[in-house]
């Protein structure tokens, strides 16, 4: 496939399941980020037979937001002698600098559920029996 080694194509197919392996391997930073986060020991043996430690370091320095988990991020910084891991990469949305993050869990007073709202009545004399 596009001249990529078959063993690397198979790893790319498994760990970056949402796009064709050839497309994944054309973006080595994305591929290595996923391999370093989701790869098995066998996958990483294949990866390390095709990429150097310097390639892995570059993948960490240019890591994509949302791929690494904290454990993998810290592990690879330690294993590649890169010192203490900085904070995980975050997405930056142009024009949203300084915006307050959305509290999707709610906060403060909770709004009633639909059932609770339907069970309530503002008319104290209303008959609540069916």
Structure characterization notes:
The protein has a domain of 83 residues. Helices cover 47% and strands 0% of the residues. The chain contains 7 helices and no strands. Helix 3 packs across helix 5. The model has no long low-confidence stretch (mean pLDDT 86).
Largest sheet: none
- Measured by DSSP, the beta-strand proportion falls in under 5%
Class by helix and strand content? mainly alpha
Shape, please?
A: globular
Mind telling me the C-alpha Rg?
A: 24 Å
Report the helical percentage.
40-55%
Query: Averaged pLDDT, please?
Result: 86
- Uncertain spans: none
Strand segment count: 0
C-alpha end-to-end distance:
67 Å
Task: Give the SSE string.
Answer: HHHHHHH
The tally of helices reads 7
In short:
The chain is mainly alpha-helical. The protein has helices spanning 6-15, 21-25, 28-38, 41-50, 53-61, 70-79, 114-119.
Q: What are the defining features of this structure?
A:
single chain; 130 residues; mainly alpha; 7 helices; 47% helix; 0% strand; globular
Helices and strands in order:
Blueprint: H1 6-15, H2 21-25, H3 28-38, H4 41-50, H5 53-61, H6 70-79, H7 114-119
Helix pairs in contact: 3-5
């Amino acid at each position: 496939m596009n001249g990529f080694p078959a063993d690397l194509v198979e790893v790319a197919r498994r760990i970056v399941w949402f796009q064709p392996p050839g497309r994944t391997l054309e973006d080595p930073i994305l591929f290595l980020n996923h391999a370093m986060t989701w790869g098995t020991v066998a996958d990483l043996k294949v990866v390390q037979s095709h990429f150097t430690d310097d390639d892995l370091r570059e993948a960490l320095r240019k890591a994509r937001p949302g791929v690494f988990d904290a454990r993998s991020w810290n592990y690879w910084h330690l294993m590649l002698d890169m010192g203490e891991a900085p904070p995980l990469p975050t997405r930056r949305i142009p024009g949203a600098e300084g915006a307050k993050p959305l509290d999707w869990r709610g906060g403060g007073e909770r709004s009633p559920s639909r059932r609770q709202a339907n069970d309530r009545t503002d008319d104290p004399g209303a008959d609540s029996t069916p």
